Inverse folding.
């Protein structure tokens, strides 16, 4: 069992708050009852006696069954002890790993790490916390589809150097449909793994050392799903591109005598990985070990076995040589072995990954000094295809001891308080274990008593300090004042020794716990009052962060740092004038001769978003300068509203104005109104806690600090600016809603709560579990009565007078569940695009439902119903996101829904917004499951929204009665026989000249042959994606020859669409693949979308727009790739400009011109076709006497015209003059209707931005 650690409350209770304040080091001596030591849990795995390196003994030992831990320990063969050695490197064999892992002694001496099921499970959870790995693992659990459809491709994972198979067997239990393989050079360990896999097949059993933790079951036994084999990691027997995921866990890397062997391993991993596959290396940080390894240490494994270890660093500091002497009390020395490990640091592994041809996934925050190295662990991953880079230096993700948000990038601050076990083994610096092979950084024991673990006091203190900082004020109680004062004393006493840890934790909390700004502002004030130099250091740290955030346009950080400075004003760390000067520096943007609207808006927003936290103090202490700030903002807001209004806002509204039940306010306009209302309330915000007010006496005596000057970043074409989302409301206080369930949208309360929730939503995107927890905890950061479940004491509220008390009580009982739902949908429906993909919001809502099942599902169901009611007025893109989300959500809860609530849709036409919503939702659920499953879950009356039959191919020549059935069968059989390209072409040519086709024109014959051959290719490949790709690749030259003209390519698109008309998902995938293989082109797909049979019948179906958007994305992506390539070769040319490189640059420039021209042609075709169809249909609708308002086709068509313009505004506006001249010009009858033209103009205004002249 991991050692028991004291919580923060236990620690303070044991020390006694009535005693003089002690540092954590002093407290360690006082709290002797909470020792961090604990007994080592050993899982003995006896085996027969084997010799040191005898192959025969190894084989014999491996052949025997696994013995119970109750059996008597075997007698080991006594070996010679080498005594003191002068040259330990010379003692290490190049193949030491063949003998060290040859028998069960390794599992005995390291069993408390490598045989601990908790550690193994924790390591698997670490893998699951990597988003790319989680995606692969989750894909394996997709429910099986019937044989009539293409099955989901098997997901395969490999544990390289798998040892006794503990990770493979744990994954087999967690992911029953995952195909797993394990490879290791040790026959003994592989045989043990195979035996455990067989044991796991037995009913109600689990393999040794690993407990079943997952309810899912598989029809295949574990021994079939988990295959183990003896092999060399440098040269495996697997085929190329076999695995989706390769893991190398437990520091099982760097055992070879030279780096070239490790490079071979990485190249072998590249070979067996599928394109886009992931490799994860789980290593101990070499930099840490060089500084912290222990030269010697020893431990009792049990009452009769003791292990002594020595370590030496090689001269080049690249390898750690270790010696392990194992002794039995009744036998003496039974093993004296030497081994070595290569110490890789993060950069070296990145280079190793890149050198092998893999792409490291690198985090922008990973090089920051805030990265926690206390766990001495490094977890890296690479990818076999281009992707945004992200690598991680993991701090342990350990359990126990509390700690901050468990996030994989930026601000690593786990543990703290009671220390935390870190999951055992490698995950805690207090543990001695260095991974699979042993203990490269254990510390010498303080004595020879019955202690089994060595405590790294410095690391433990730093974890506890970090934990105390992170957890303080998590839930505001009457002890907050005492806790803050106590914590300030502890930090002050320990600051000299642990300043880096304290500053790092404060930085992370300021930037990642936005709802606790007042806590950390007050804590900084108390530290400043105790030691002005400490206060100066914190202010300097925050100032540098603000400067960096401005330079890199990290606007959320800018906002949160300004809020922190606001709290420093309240805590008397900086003067109001100092912060007002910073605000004026931001507002200097408004003095620019012409300023882009987004730039000016961002500057004003940063100022206004800071005021709720400090306006009262600044107004009281410096009213003159404070009023000047408001005057400058007011001047800008007046000028902003003049003219044609806020560009782009009208086309980013979720609902149509005339049908929306509330006023859709533009975000900065809304914030200004909220600030004006706050001014009327004399700047009092009764929902915010003011802990600084309880320390007025102490804080008032402290010295203040100045802030440096800041400047907004210079605008460039790539600069982006921040703005919150427009007002979006779901719950309006009617139809059974709770009275005052949510704050008034025009009160500053609405901004404060929504802003805090939105920040948490975005900051914790990497970890939805932590995000759900902190979203729910936001309610505990406000004064009591703010939320229905709040428990903040009124003593901490800055209540002044009866009016403020009444104001606070007026907001009592807000529903955190409804607020969470509203905020998440606000971000999900944000236009033109949300900050994250829809799947994030979906997975988060699933997590919240599971975490808080008693209250949140009810609020979510109510939100769904209200949004469903408003579908007729909802933007088409938002409706698309809505049904995409709901289908995914239902798939996580057994596809259960109260369909009878929506029975009214049964009487509506097929193209009505609600009918379309249900049909599209069901089609998406079929993709996530299978046809029969959804059909069974749906009431009979709703069956009409399902397709008539299960998704499948539609082969035109299938019927024997078809006149060309025999010809098609002949071609199909020839393809099935894998005949050569020459033979296939001869067959097609003979058919083209057949007498029965003599009545057709040459063009008609070409069309027939193209259709015949393409249909046969699709039919042969209809079993799976791999089948169809194999067929396409085998006969690609024929397909390309048959599609050499624009008309032929359009014809092929139609053929594919017809073949897969009953499975639109595969239709889109096949068109995408043919686009990749250049069988068809983007213009052909665009033309198909605007063919009469499509736009007249299918425009209300989302698959059409999915295909079109995917096609446009491909075109844009190709331009981006060529631009990146040009930047790369230009850098090479600037560094070393030989003639050859200059030619390469010129060649890439020519390629860029070509792809830019192609992109322009695609979008020009898109707009020409789209406007032509809209214009002709508009005239037809008006001629029929139907009103446009009642025409669902017009609503859908115009909606998607708007959405495509919003989505691709950057590309569209890059040649807007050309579009305007060719598409939107014309007079009289040729003039484009202004309802169409106005959308185009608004899109251009949204992207370009109208300059505002204020001077």
């Amino acid at each position: 069992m991991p050692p028991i650690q004291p919580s923060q409350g236990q620690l303070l209770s044991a020390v006694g708050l009535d005693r003089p304040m002690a540092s954590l080091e002093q407290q360690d001596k006082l709290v002797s009852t909470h020792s961090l030591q604990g007994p080592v849990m050993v899982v003995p795995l006896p085996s027969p006696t084997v010799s040191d390196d005898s192959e025969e003994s190894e084989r014999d030992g491996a052949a025997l069954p696994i013995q119970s831990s109750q059996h008597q320990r075997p007698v080991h063969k006594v070996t010679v002890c080498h005594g003191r050695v002068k040259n330990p490197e010379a003692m290490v064999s190049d193949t030491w790993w063949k003998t060290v892992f040859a028998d069960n002694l390794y599992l005995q001496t390291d069993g408390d790490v490598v045989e601990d099921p908790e550690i193994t499970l924790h390591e698997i959870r670490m893998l699951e916390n990597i988003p790319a790995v989680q995606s692969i693992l989750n894909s394996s659990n997709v429910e099986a589809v019937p044989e009539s459809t293409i099955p989901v491709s098997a997901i395969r994972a490999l544990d390289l150097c798998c040892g006794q198979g503990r990770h493979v067997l744990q994954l087999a239990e967690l992911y029953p449909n995952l195909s797993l393989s394990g490879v290791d050079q040790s026959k003994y360990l592989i045989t043990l793994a195979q035996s455990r896999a067989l044991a796991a097949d037995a009913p109600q059993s689990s393999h040794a050392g690993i407990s079943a933790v997952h309810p899912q079951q598989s029809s295949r036994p574990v021994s079939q799903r988990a295959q183990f084999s003896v092999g060399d990691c440098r040269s495996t027997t697997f085929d190329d591109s076999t695995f989706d995921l390769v893991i190398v866990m437990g520091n099982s890397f760097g055992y070879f005598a030279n780096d070239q062997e490790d490079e071979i391993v990485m190249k072998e991993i590249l070979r067996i990985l599928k394109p886009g596959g992931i490799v994860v290396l789980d290593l101990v940080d070499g930099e840490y070990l060089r500084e912290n390894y222990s030269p010697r240490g020893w431990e009792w494994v049990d009452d009769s076995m003791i292990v002594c270890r020595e370590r030496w660093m090689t001269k080049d500091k690249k390898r750690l040589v270790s010696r392990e002497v194992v002794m039995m009390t009744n036998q003496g020395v039974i093993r004296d072995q030497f081994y070595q490990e290569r110490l890789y640091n993060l950069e070296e592994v990145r280079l190793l990954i890149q050198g092998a041809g893999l792409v490291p996934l690198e985090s922008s925050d990973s090089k920051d000094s805030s990265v926690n190295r206390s766990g001495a662990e490094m977890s890296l991953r690479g990818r076999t295809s281009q992707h945004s880079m992200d690598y991680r230096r993991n701090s342990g993700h350990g359990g126990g001891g509390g700690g901050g948000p468990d996030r994989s990038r930026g601000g690593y601050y786990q543990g703290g308080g009671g220390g935390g076990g870190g999951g055992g083994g490698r995950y805690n610096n207090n543990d001695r274990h260095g991974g699979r092979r042993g203990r490269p950084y254990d510390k010498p024991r303080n004595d020879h008593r019955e202690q089994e673990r060595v405590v790294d006091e410095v690391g433990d203190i730093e974890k506890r300090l970090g934990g105390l900082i992170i957890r303080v004020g998590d839930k505001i109680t009457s002890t907050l004042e005492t806790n803050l004062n106590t914590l300030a004393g502890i930090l002050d006493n320990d600051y000299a020794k642990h300043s880096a840890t304290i500053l790092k934790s404060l930085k992370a909390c300021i930037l990642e716990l936005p709802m606790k700004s007042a806590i950390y502002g007050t804590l900084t004030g108390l530290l400043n009052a105790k030691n002005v130099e400490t206060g100066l250091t914190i202010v300097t740290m925050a100032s540098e962060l603000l400067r960096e955030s401005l330079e890199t346009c990290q606007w959320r950080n800018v906002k949160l740092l300004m809020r922190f400075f606001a709290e420093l004003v309240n805590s008397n760390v900086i003067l109001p004038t100092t912060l007002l000067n910073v605000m004026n520096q931001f507002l200097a943007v408004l003095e620019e001769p012409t300023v882009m609207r987004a730039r000016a808006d961002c500057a004003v927003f940063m100022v206004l978003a800071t005021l709720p936290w400090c306006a009262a103090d600044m107004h009281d202490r410096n009213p003159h300068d404070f009023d000047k700030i408001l005057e400058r903002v007011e001047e800008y807001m007046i000028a902003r509203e003049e003219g044609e209004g806020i560009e782009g806002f009208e086309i980013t509204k979720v609902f149509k104005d005339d049908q929306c039940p509330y006023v859709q306010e533009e975000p900065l306009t809304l914030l200004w109104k909220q600030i004006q209302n706050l001014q009327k309330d004399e700047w009092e915000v009764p929902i915010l806690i003011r802990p600084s007010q309880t320390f007025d006496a102490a804080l008032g005596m402290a010295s203040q600090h100045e802030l440096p000057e800041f400047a907004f970043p210079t605008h460039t074409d790539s600069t982006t600016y921040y703005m919150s989302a427009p007002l979006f409301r779901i719950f309006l206080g009617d139809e059974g809603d709770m009275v005052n369930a949510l704050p008034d949208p025009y009160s500053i309360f609405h901004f404060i709560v929504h802003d805090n929730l939105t920040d948490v939503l975005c900051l914790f995107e990497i970890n939805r579990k932590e995000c759900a927890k902190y979203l729910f905890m936001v309610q505990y950061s406000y004064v009591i009565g703010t939320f229905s479940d709040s428990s903040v004491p009124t003593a901490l509220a800055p209540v002044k007078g009866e009016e403020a008390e009444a104001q606070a009580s007026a907001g009592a009982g807000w529903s955190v569940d409804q607020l969470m739902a509203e905020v998440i949908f606000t971000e999900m429906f944000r236009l033109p695009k949300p900050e994250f993909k829809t799947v994030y919001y979906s997975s988060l809502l699933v997590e919240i439902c599971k975490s808080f099942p008693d209250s949140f599902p009810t609020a979510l169901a109510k939100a769904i119903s209200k949004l469903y009611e408003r579908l007729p007025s909802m933007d088409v893109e938002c409706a698309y996101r809505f049904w995409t989300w709901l289908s995914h959500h239902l798939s996580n809860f057994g596809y259960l829904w109260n369909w009878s609530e929506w029975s009214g849709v049964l009487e509506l036409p097929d193209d009505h917004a609600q009918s379309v919503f249900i049909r599209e939702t069901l089609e998406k659920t079929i993709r996530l499951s299978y046809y029969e499953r959804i059909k069974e879950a749906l009431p009979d009356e709703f069956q009409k929204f399902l397709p008539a039959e299960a998704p499948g191919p539609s082969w035109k020549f299938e019927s024997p009665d078809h006149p060309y059935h025999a010809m098609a069968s002949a071609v199909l059989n020839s393809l099935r026989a894998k005949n050569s390209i020459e033979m296939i072409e001869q067959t097609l040519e003979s058919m083209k000249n057949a007498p029965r086709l003599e009545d057709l024109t040459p063009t008609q014959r070409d069309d027939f042959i193209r259709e015949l051959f393409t249909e046969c290719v699709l039919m042969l490949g209809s079993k799976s994606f791999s089948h169809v790709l194999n067929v396409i690749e085998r006969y690609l030259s024929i397909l390309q020859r048959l599609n050499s003209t624009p008309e032929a390519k359009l014809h092929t698109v139609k053929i594919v669409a017809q073949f897969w008309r009953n499975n639109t998902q595969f239709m889109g995938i096949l068109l995408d693949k043919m686009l990749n293989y250049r069988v068809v082109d983007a213009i052909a797909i665009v033309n198909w979308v605007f063919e009469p049979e499509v736009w007249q019948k299918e425009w209300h179906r989302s698959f059409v727009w999915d295909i079109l958007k995917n096609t446009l994305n491909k075109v844009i992506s190709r331009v981006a790739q060529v631009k990146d390539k040009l930047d790369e070769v230009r850098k090479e040319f600037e560094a070393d400009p030989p003639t050859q490189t200059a030619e390469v640059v010129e060649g890439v420039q020519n390629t860029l011109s070509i792809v830019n021209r192609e992109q322009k042609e695609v979008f020009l075709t898109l707009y020409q076709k789209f406007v032509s169809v809209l214009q002709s249909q508009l005239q037809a609708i008006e001629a029929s006497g139907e009103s446009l308002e009642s025409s669902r086709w017009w609503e859908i068509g115009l909606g998607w015209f708007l959405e495509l313009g919003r989505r691709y505004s950057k590309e569209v506006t890059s040649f807007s003059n050309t579009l305007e001249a060719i598409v939107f010009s014309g007079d009289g009858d040729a003039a484009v209707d202004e309802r169409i033209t106005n959308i185009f103009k608004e899109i251009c205004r949204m992207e370009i931005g109208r300059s505002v002249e204020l001077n």
The longest helix spans residues 1139-1184. The longest strand covers residues 273-284.
